[in-house]
């Protein structure tokens, strides 16, 4: 019994960290731009497919494939800012228009992926360990994938934190997130910071997508709605302005999901996300009353 | 005065031309798509009122479309009543649920409200799929009765005129409301809710009104859809459809009275035009790209440009700064 | 006779007590100033009276009736209007519409009247539109009726807000720093407008930082510090109060 608990807890935390990573990307983006990108999750899908292409189709070493994929998706973030955000801002399109534009973009990307790679899910190479050969500790079987995720996310968070506290760019980003007007007066190139925000949030999500692929396959599910909503739910737990709380929120969702499937039925797995959402939205408002 | 009359005449000519399409084009598939387009226009019109006029987000409106559809289907199948009773039940049910959905809007707005509406849409869809005994679940609901006249089922062309009449009624109601003190109150809620409250405007009551109204429009459209198609599947009411409806209202013109109609027609028909060319694989890509480009290039939608075009035809010269209908 | 009375009015934000057991009265038909250093709870008090913020404890009594906990639109309907420190206008509506919409609470017509276009509705519309124009004339905005607020000079945006506040026919008007951000001419006009309000039998609670304004206009002053009442009296009296001077020590305005 305990061993099942531990197994579920570990895999729940691992997947949850990835939801949280997506949520972290949403929070970072929202803090600087005050906007919601409904094509956010498409970056995860693109990251996974590109990594697959570099590694499996073009036979590049995995780490290189992963890095290339993330860089490419970050460049997509740049294009997103240039061709969607800027024209809308120029024409005084507001948040609603950006939401709709990014929604359509996500449909477009989904279909583009089908055209380029076909709609059949592809298995991810076993770089994170063979799911059929978990690590056995006593009576507990732990997927090595979970351990890799823990490792990657830990390293990433440390790197991110150093970036924000020790580099000029990182500090400038934080300034822009807190007060755009004041940052501009301080001489910070706000437009450049916004571009970096776009690239950062798409890049982070691409990483999450690559790490999620072993569990969800290299498939359209990655770009579909529900994982994206989980990312948004994690961001809401993080009150839209606390990136690391969003990470934690994702973990809570991942854990809750696993235990709901364990004790109730898998039908309700996704309902958990909505329950979280509504709960935190209501609680958030009560706390501000 | 004469110029305003000229504009009305031009609009009437365009309307007449549109209404004449089924008499000229006998392709049943085309007429079916027009029928669908008119139904979508009803839903989009509700979203124009909700989001453009009152500033409230709803990214889960397919839920009302579905509730209306299944309600009418189930009521007419179970009790053998005529379609009109089914449509009315659909409207009443959507009125109530619409009022319930307005409650989160009392405390939440923008992003947070959109998340609640997305959750609402997904929950309704999950219920539809899982309540097998009532809705047939993923297998769908068959054998819904079509609308009848003179003892026979109406043709798609006749449905076209019925739907056009319903849409006209919806346009009339929405426009009347938008131009009245109620419309002004809704716009105040949109522009600054707190200031509206302290100016004596009951913002809660207005939100109740506009949420229910937009829900009723979608519910009626859903009910009509059920009897047009005689078959319902949960696939028609997924999250992507909600996004589609909002896209229609934005592409058409979120702050324009004709936005719902133009958006419903254009967005429904775009994929059809792309499908014909023999580039089948790409038509979904193409249509989403087309809408994306439209939203970016014309954030205020097609309706304002359309109206400007008509003004020019009518010789009306508006100084810049003349605002849209709202 | 007091038109408004607060009794032990308190508002907490977590650990911070923004307004602390505040009891004061606003005499009817007079202009009362509410002053105090930054953060002393002036805006919060206005928010509490207008119903925008719920009170943590204590009460607000208007014309003998307890209105604590009333929704803001109910407070407005009872006859209390307000403006905002940062000016909150309906930016996508015209100048006229901004005032016109504040007449909504006067309507007896309902949705049915709207749908059938009844005579009652059209006569109410005409009357309310006329009243809105009159208010625009009062503040000197009649010629800009079809403009958008963003095209108005800053001072006139404030006047528009005041016109809107008057549209609900209040007996008590709460003005939150009406002179903030004004140039010299606009400043004189606002002062003049506030004096005219008293002549219209409207009681005023005026939150202001500019002492010149307060001194010239008010009949009665309440001084706040740290959410509590520090002193009360005529301007001449509180001006000499040592506690008031100490609270303002270092601030140039007194």
Could you characterize what this model shows?
- The complex is a heterotrimer of chains A (289), B (326) and C (254).
- By secondary structure, chain A is mainly α.
- In chain A, 76% of the residues lie in helices and 2% in strands.
- Chain A is globular.
- The mean pLDDT of chain A is 86.
- With 326 residues, chain B is mainly α.
- Chain B has a domain at 33-237.
- In chain B, a hairpin with a 2-residue loop joins strand 1 (148-149) and strand 2 (152-153).
- The longest helix of chain B is centred in the middle third of the chain and has 27 residues, at 203-229.
- In chain C, a hairpin with a 2-residue loop joins strand 1 and strand 2 (16-27).
- Chain C starts with a strand and ends in a 7-residue tail after the last helix.
- At the A-B interface, helix 3, helix 4, helix 9 and helix 11 of A face helix 5, helix 11 and helix 13 of B.
Put the structure in a nutshell.
Chain A has about 290 residues and is mainly alpha-helical. In chain A, about 75% of the residues lie in helices and about 0% in strands. The chains are: A mainly alpha (about 290), B mainly alpha (about 325), C alpha/beta (about 250).
List the helices and strands and how they pair.
The complex is a heterotrimer of chains A (289), B (326) and C (254).
Chain A: H1 2-33, H2 42-57, H3 62-90, H4 95-117, E1 135-137, E2 140-142, H5 144-166, H6 168-178, H7 180-185, H8 190-216, H9 225-237, H10 243-263, H11 269-288
Antiparallel strand pairs in A: 1-2
Helix pairs in contact in A: 1-5, 1-6, 1-8, 1-9, 1-10, 2-3, 2-4, 2-8, 3-8, 5-6, 6-8, 9-10, 9-11, 10-11
Chain B: H1 2-24, H2 28-53, H3 62-79, H4 83-107, H5 110-130, H6 132-135, E1 148-149, E2 152-153, H7 156-178, H8 181-191, H9 193-198, H10 203-229, H11 239-253, H12 259-276, H13 283-297, H14 302-313
Antiparallel strand pairs in B: 1-2
Helix pairs in contact in B: 2-7, 2-10, 2-11, 2-12, 3-4, 3-5, 3-10, 4-10, 8-10, 11-12, 12-13
Chain C: E1 2-13, E2 16-27, E3 31-35, H1 42-50, E4 57-62, E5 65-66, H2 72-78, E6 80-82, H3 95-100, H4 111-116, H5 119-139, H6 154-167, E7 172-176, H7 184-199, E8 203-207, H8 211-217, E9 220-225, E10 228-233, H9 235-240, H10 242-247
Parallel strand pairs in C: 3-8, 3-9, 6-7, 7-8
Antiparallel strand pairs in C: 1-2, 1-4, 4-5, 9-10
């Amino acid at each position: 019994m305990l061993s099942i608990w531990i197994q579920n807890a570990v895999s729940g935390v691992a997947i949850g960290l990835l939801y949280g990573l997506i949520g972290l990307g949403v929070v970072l983006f929202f803090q600087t731009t005050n906007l919601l990108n409904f094509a956010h999750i498409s970056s995860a899908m693109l990251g996974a497919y590109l990594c697959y292409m570099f590694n499996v189709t073009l036979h590049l070493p995995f780490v290189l494939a992963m890095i290339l994929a993330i860089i490419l998706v970050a460049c997509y973030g740049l294009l997103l800012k240039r061709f969607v955000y800027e024209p809308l801002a120029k024409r005084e399109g507001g948040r609603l228009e950006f939401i709709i534009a990014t929604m359509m973009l996500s449909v477009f990307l989904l279909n583009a992926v089908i055209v380029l790679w076909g709609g059949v899910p592809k298995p991810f190479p076993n770089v994170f360990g063979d799911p059929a050969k978990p690590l056995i500790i006593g009576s507990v079987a732990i997927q090595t994938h979970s351990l890799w995720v823990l490792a990657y996310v830990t390293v990433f968070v440390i790197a991110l934190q150093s970036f924000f506290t020790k580099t000029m760019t990182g500090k400038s980003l934080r300034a822009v997130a807190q007060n755009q007007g004041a940052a501009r007066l301080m001489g910070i190139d706000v437009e450049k910071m916004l571009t970096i925000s776009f690239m950062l949030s798409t890049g982070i999500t691409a990483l999450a997508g690559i790490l999620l692929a072993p569990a969800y396959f290299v498939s359209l599910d990655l770009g579909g709605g529900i994982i994206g909503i989980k990312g948004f739910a994690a961001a809401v737990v993080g009150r839209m302005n606390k990136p690391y709380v969003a990470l934690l929120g994702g973990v809570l969702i991942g854990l809750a999901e696993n235990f709901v499937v364990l004790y109730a039925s898998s039908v309700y797995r996704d309902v958990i996300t909505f329950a979280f959402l509504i709960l935190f939205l209501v609680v958030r408002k009560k706390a501000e009353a | 005065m004469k110029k305003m009359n000229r504009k009305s005449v031009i609009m009437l000519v365009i309307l007449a031309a549109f209404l004449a399409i089924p008499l000229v084009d006998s392709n049943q598939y085309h007429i079916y798509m027009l029928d669908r387009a008119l139904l979508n226009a009803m839903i989009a019109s509700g979203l124009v009122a909700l989001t453009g006029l009152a500033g409230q987000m709803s990214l889960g409106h397919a839920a009302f479309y579905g509730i209306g559809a299944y309600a009418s289907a189930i009521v007419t199948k179970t009790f053998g009543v005529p379609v009109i009773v089914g449509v009315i039940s659909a409207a009443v049910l959507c009125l109530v649920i619409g009022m319930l959905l307005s409650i989160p809007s009392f405390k939440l707005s923008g992003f947070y409200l959109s998340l609640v509406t997305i959750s609402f849409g997904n929950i309704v869809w999950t219920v539809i799929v899982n309540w097998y005994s009532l809705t047939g679940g993923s297998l769908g609901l068959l054998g819904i009765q079509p609308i009848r006249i003179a003892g026979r089922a109406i043709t798609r062309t006749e449905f076209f005129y019925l739907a056009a009449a319903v849409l006209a009624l919806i346009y009339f109601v929405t426009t009347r409301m938008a131009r009245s003190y109620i419309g002004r109150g809704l716009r105040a809620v949109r522009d600054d809710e707190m200031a509206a409250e302290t100016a004596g405007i009951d913002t809660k009551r207005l939100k109740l009104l506009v949420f229910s109204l937009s829900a009723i429009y979608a519910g009626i459209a859903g009910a009509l859809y059920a009897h047009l198609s005689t078959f319902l599947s949960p696939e028609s009411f997924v999250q992507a459809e909600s996004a589609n409806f909002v896209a229609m209202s934005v592409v058409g013109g979120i702050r324009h009275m004709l936005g719902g109609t133009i958006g419903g027609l254009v967005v429904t028909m775009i994929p059809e035009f792309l499908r014909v060319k023999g580039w089948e694989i790409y038509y979904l890509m193409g249509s989403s790209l087309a809408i994306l480009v439209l939203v970016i290039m014309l954030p205020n939608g097609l309706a304002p440009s359309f109206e400007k075009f008509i003004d020019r035809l009518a010789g009306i010269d508006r100084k810049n700064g003349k605002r849209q209908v709202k | 006779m007091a038109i408004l009375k607060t009794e032990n009015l308190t508002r907490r934000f977590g650990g911070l007590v923004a307004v602390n057991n505040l009891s004061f009265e606003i005499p009817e038909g007079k202009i009362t100033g509410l002053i105090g250093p930054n953060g002393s709870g002036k805006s919060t008090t206005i928010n509490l009276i207008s119903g925008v913020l719920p009170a943590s404890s204590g009460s607000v009594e208007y014309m003998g009736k307890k209105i604590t906990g009333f929704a803001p639109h109910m407070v407005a309907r009872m006859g209390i209007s307000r403006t905002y420190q940062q000016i909150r206008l309906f930016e996508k509506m015209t100048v006229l519409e901004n005032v016109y919409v504040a007449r909504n609470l006067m309507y007896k017509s309902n949705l049915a009247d709207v749908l059938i276009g009844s005579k009652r509705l059209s006569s109410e519309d005409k009357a309310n539109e006329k009243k809105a124009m009159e208010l625009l004339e009062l503040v000197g905005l009649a010629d800009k009726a079809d403009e958008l607020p963003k095209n108005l000079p800053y001072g006139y945006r404030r006047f528009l807000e005041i016109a809107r506040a008057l549209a609900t026919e209040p007996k008590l008007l709460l003005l939150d720093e009406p002179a903030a951000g004004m140039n010299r001419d606009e400043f004189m006009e606002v002062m003049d407008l506030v004096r005219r309000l008293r002549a219209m039998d409207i009681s005023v609670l005026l939150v202001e930082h500019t002492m010149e304004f307060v001194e010239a206009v008010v009949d009665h002053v309440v001084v706040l510090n740290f959410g509590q009442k520090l002193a009360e009296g005529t301007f001449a009296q509180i001006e000499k109060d040592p506690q008031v001077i100490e609270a303002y020590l270092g601030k140039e305005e007194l």
